[in-house]
């Protein structure tokens, strides 16, 4: 398989969000002339509001409203000056009140995103290193990545994994001034906590460790003066912790606050903190509302408000425990997350709840992995017990209905979130369809398989038997694959769907940029399996092309498709795969909506290249049919080099030639980190040499005819398809002999001589292939991962 093109994150998010918007659960508009906090109007219907982040309901407090209105009347809608020059009259009072709350120096920022952009580049020195929890808020990650331009290393650990964190500490303790660990106090999707006590213990053990913690979702509803979850654990802020809180969300106003007890660091951030210097300051209304809220936070009243919220949270938890709903994390925060697994189940569930009169948030990629879609429920003081009880009853009723509508089960949801569940696996069956699922092509009828898949590449029946012989029984684990063959027929034995899948060890950075792979390969010199995972893939790393037969016109085509998705999930569990890759699809595939609904994200692959020969008699006729520009390319860049080499086509090489072929292939593999895969087993070349359908196009210089400088490894598919599967080249002589261009030309010439109707030139180097008349077509893969960690880790390593 050729390398999947660098994944465009924004394009993927756009596709996922567009899908959710079309399903009516994202980018909605609230209606109505008033808003109380208890209900929200969506599509002209009043819904009980379980999606707010204003957990204490202070945004509706009359004192905050009156303060904001009064400030506008006295000072206007804004104070259009940089705060570096002069703050408007209310700012000083707000800073004094918030300082009293935190009992430590603070900085007020326009919002937390701009605050992070100002604070992180100011706090982190070029001699430091950053370690990110992979679930830390996007705004923190985005600000941290700006430091790549200053060559500050950025590492990432799995969520709350302190063993990984300590490994990173040991890695950098002798080479870096400070090691910054960045995390959330309360995580916004699942409502789970950072392990503050354990982190502080690490801080005592490693004095160079510094903490940057975003606690905006822990603010107000917990802690002394409502200063949040982290301070409730710490008591007072130590010098090695930078803490972000918020003046919006639960605080009820706008803005954010950075608390920093290190006086020198506080001065440095406040003096010049990028956006803190150049961005507009908070509007008078926001500052006035924040002052009113701060006064509440500094009074005993805040503890009464916290207690009222606590009673509602406890009530919700009590009745939720009486159900079998998949609550992802059990904690004390006002944030709850119920898993639905597939996005389309989440869409269905949210829409059902809105029809019942309840609004909840959809949790979806990139906030969570696509297959970890769910509903995010927040409890606030606005919520009354009767609607809390009504929400739980509605969820308990509609959750199984949503599963049924989207052809999934509780067990599949629980598995997606790694939760324990006693329910047995749903059988791999479907009314009116027959499933044949096997682990060797030898048990599949040859004529049937070839009638469905035989006119594609190297995966006709004989080609797959060759692959099984080559990729099984090897000593190295990366050279052994599990094969699975899927045949779905109707009750009259008419095939509806057929494909094959392989499961094997892939390098996680196969999808990454070359510079990332170079860095990771340095680690693999001591740990060859560093950052590798088992992947279940439609097709294999050895094949390319359309790996799927699907009769979309059959009356049971959609049922077969859904059964296939269940098979893939079953195989993922059985084979313990960490990622599923389905490929090679066209952009307009009718499977797109179903694939996204099942938790797959689309990534563009290199274009595929083919040549249709039809009735062309010889290479001269073929070249004559090229465009004038391409004929000129042939005359100038290929023909002058043909006389410099000797060509040999061999179906059975001697030992010396076979060794040269393997070495030439290895040169290409080593040079091509853009396709960073494991090497193929030595047995593969021996099997090729003995197989009746494989042959080698070898070229050697005239002066050294026994020393090959290039080879094309070609497969003669019985259905008149010639496949240039892999290439080997001597890179030292690449330009002198135009090796790659010659091999392409000779491949076309050989296919014509054999009377082939089509040449499959594979992927990559489409520019060179197009100059020889290849037809180029876009191809896409669909990826589904157990979590986002690897994708996010690779992203932090880029740049």
Automatic annotation (TrEMBL):
Annotated BioF2-like acetyltransferase domain ranges read 629-767
Q: Where is the Aminotransferase class I/classII large domain?
A: 47-393
**InterPro entries from the UniProt entry:** Acyl_CoA_acyltransferase, Aminotransferase_I/II_large, AON_synthase_class-II, BioF2-like_GNAT_dom, PyrdxlP-dep_Trfase, PyrdxlP-dep_Trfase_major, PyrdxlP-dep_Trfase_small
Which cofactor(s) are needed, names only?
Answer: pyridoxal 5'-phosphate
Keyword annotations of the record = Aminotransferase, Transferase
**Pfam families recorded for this chain?**
Acetyltransf_6, Aminotran_1_2
Q: Name one GO molecular function term.
A: transaminase activity
Q: What is this protein called?
A: Aminotransferase class I/II-fold pyridoxal phosphate-dependent enzyme
**Phylogenetic classification of the source organism:** Bacteria, Pseudomonadati, Bacteroidota, Flavobacteriia, Flavobacteriales
């Amino acid at each position: 398989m050729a390398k999947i093109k660098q994944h465009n994150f924004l394009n993927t998010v756009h596709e996922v969000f567009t899908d959710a918007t079309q399903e009516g659960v994202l980018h909605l508009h609230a209606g109505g002339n008033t808003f109380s906090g208890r209900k929200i109007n969506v599509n002209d219907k009043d819904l009980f509001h379980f999606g707010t982040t204003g957990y204490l309901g202070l945004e509706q407090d009359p004192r905050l409203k009156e303060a904001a209105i009064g400030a506008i009347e006295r000072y206007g809608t804004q104070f259009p000056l940089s705060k570096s020059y002069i703050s408007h009259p209310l700012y000083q009072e707000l800073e004094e009140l918030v300082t009293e709350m935190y009992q430590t120096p603070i900085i007020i920022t326009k919002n937390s995103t701009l605050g992070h952009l100002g604070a992180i580049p100011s706090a982190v020195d070029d001699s430091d290193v950053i370690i990110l929890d992979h679930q830390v808020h996007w705004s923190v990650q985005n600000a941290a990545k700006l430091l790549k331009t200053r060559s500050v290393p950025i590492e990432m650990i799995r969520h709350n994994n302190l063993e990984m964190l300590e490994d990173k500490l040991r890695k950098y303790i002798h080479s870096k001034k400070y090691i910054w660990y960045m995390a959330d106090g309360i995580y916004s999707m699942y409502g789970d906590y950072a392990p503050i006590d354990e982190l502080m213990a690490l801080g005592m053990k490693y004095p160079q460790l510094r903490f940057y913690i975003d606690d905006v979702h822990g603010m107000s509803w917990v802690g002394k003066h409502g200063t949040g979850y982290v301070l409730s654990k710490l008591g007072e802020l130590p010098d090695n912790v930078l803490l972000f809180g918020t003046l919006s969300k639960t605080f009820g106003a706008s803005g954010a606050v950075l608390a920093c007890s290190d006086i020198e660091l506080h001065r440095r951030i406040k003096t010049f903190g990028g956006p803190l210097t150049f961005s507009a300051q908070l509007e008078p209304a926001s500052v006035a509302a924040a002052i009113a809220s701060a006064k509440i936070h500094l009074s005993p009243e805040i503890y009464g408000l916290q207690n009222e919220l606590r009673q509602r949270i406890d009530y919700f938890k009590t009745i939720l425990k009486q159900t079998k709903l998949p609550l992802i994390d059990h904690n004390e925060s006002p944030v709850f997350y119920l898993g639905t697994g597939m996005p389309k189940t989440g869409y269905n569930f949210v829409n059902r709840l809105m029809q019942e009169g309840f609004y909840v948030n959809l949790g979806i990629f990139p906030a969570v992995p696509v297959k970890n879609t769910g509903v995010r429920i927040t409890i606030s003081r606005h919520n009354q017990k009767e609607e809390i009880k009504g929400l739980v009853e509605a969820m308990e009723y509609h959750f199984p209905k949503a599963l049924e509508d989207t052809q999934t089960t509780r067990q599949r949801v629980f598995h997606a979130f790694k939760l324990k569940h006693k329910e047995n696996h749903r059988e791999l069956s479907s009314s009116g369809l027959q499933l044949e699922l096997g682990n060797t092509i030898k048990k599949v009828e040859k004529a049937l398989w070839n009638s469905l898949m035989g006119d594609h590449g190297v995966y006709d029946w004989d080609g797959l038997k060759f692959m099984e012989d080559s990729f099984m029984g090897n000593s190295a684990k990366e050279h052994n694959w599990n094969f699975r063959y899927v045949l779905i027929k109707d009750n009259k034995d008419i095939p509806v769907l057929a494909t094959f899948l392989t499961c094997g060890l892939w390098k996680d950075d196969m999808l990454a940029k070359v510079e990332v792979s170079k860095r990771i390969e340095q680690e693999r010199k001591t740990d060859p399996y560093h950052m590798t995972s088992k992947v279940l893939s439609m097709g294999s790393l050895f094949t390319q092309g359309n790996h799927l037969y699907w009769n979309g016109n059959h009356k049971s085509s959609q049922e077969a498709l859904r059964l296939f998705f269940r098979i893939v999930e079953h195989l993922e569990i059985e084979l313990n795969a960490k990622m599923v890759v389905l490929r090679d699809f066209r952009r307009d595939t009718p499977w797109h909506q179903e694939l996204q609904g099942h938790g797959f994200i689309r990534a563009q692959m290199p274009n595929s290249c083919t040549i249709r020969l039809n009735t062309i008699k010889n290479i001269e006729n073929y070249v004559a049919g090229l465009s004038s520009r391409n004929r000129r390319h042939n005359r100038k860049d290929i023909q002058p080099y043909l006389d410099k080499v000797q060509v040999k086509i061999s179906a059975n090489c001697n030992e010396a030639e076979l060794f040269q072929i393997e070495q030439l292939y290895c040169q290409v593999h080593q040079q091509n980190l853009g396709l960073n895969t494991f090497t193929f087993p030595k047995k593969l070349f021996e099997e090729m040499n003995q197989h009746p359908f494989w042959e080698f196009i070898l070229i050697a210089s005239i002066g050294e005819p026994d020393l090959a400088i290039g080879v094309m490894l070609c497969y003669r598919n019985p259905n008149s398809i010639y496949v240039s599967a892999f290439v080997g080249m001597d890179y030292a002589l690449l330009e002198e002999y135009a090796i790659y261009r010659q091999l392409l030309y000779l491949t076309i010439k050989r296919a014509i001589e054999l009377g082939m109707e089509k040449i499959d030139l594979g992927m990559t180097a489409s520019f060179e292939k197009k100059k020889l008349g290849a037809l180029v077509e876009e191809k896409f893969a669909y990826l589904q991962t157990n979590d986002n960690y690897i994708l996010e880790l690779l992203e932090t390593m880029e740049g």
